[in-house]
Design brief:
Mean pLDDT is about 75; it is low at about 25-45. This protein is about 35% helix and about 30% strand. The chain has three helices and five strands.
C-alpha cells in the first residue's frame, strides 16, 4: 500500500468514526427527549413522546377545543406532545408531494379474552401553511368526528 493510499484510508476511517459518533449522539438525545428526561424545549423538531395514562386523559378531555387554523404549538399546548409525527401527502398514486404533516395521539390496549388490540386515536393534519387543516378521531365520542374538510 502506498503512502497516499494509506492517508486516504486513514482520512476515510476518521470521517466514518465522526459520522457514527454524530448518529449515536442524535439517537441518545431522542431517547432522552422521548422519555421525558430532558426539558420539553430540547427537541422542538421532534416533539413526540410515548403515551401515558395522564397524557391520554388530557386528549380525551380537551380534544374538542381544537379548531381549524391552529398552529402546531397551540395544538401541543392543548393536547400535549403527540405519539407520532408523520408527513402528510397528497392523495396521488404516483409521486405524491408532501402537503403538510400529521400529529397522531393514540391509546392502544389489549382487550381480553382473545387479547385483541383496541385502538382509540386522534389525528390532526396540518396543511401547507402549518395550520390545522383537519382533525379526525376514532373512539372519542362518535366514529367520525371531523373538523375542516
Amino acid at each position: 500500500m502506498t503512502q497516499r493510499t494509506h492517508v486516504i484510508v486513514v482520512v476515510f476511517a476518521g470521517m466514518l468514526a465522526i459520522l457514527v459518533l454524530v448518529l449515536g449522539l442524535s439517537a441518545t438525545r431522542r431517547y432522552f427527549a422521548r422519555s421525558g428526561k430532558e426539558a420539553d424545549s430540547a427537541m422542538p423538531e421532534d416533539p413526540t413522546i410515548a403515551p401515558t395514562p395522564e397524557s391520554w386523559k388530557r386528549v380525551i378531555v380537551r380534544h374538542k377545543e381544537l379548531v381549524k387554523g391552529m398552529t402546531p404549538k397551540q395544538v401541543i399546548e392543548i393536547l400535549g406532545r403527540p405519539n407520532e409525527i408523520s408527513p402528510l401527502y397528497e392523495p396521488e398514486h404516483f409521486n405524491p408531494r408532501q402537503i403538510g404533516r400529521t400529529y397522531v395521539y393514540r391509546e392502544t390496549k389489549l382487550v381480553p379474552p382473545q387479547q385483541e388490540i383496541e385502538a382509540t386515536w386522534l389525528r390532526v393534519d396540518f396543511g401547507k401553511q402549518d395550520h390545522v387543516w383537519t382533525v379526525r378521531q376514532n373512539g372519542l365520542g362518535g366514529d367520525s368526528w371531523v373538523i375542516g374538510k
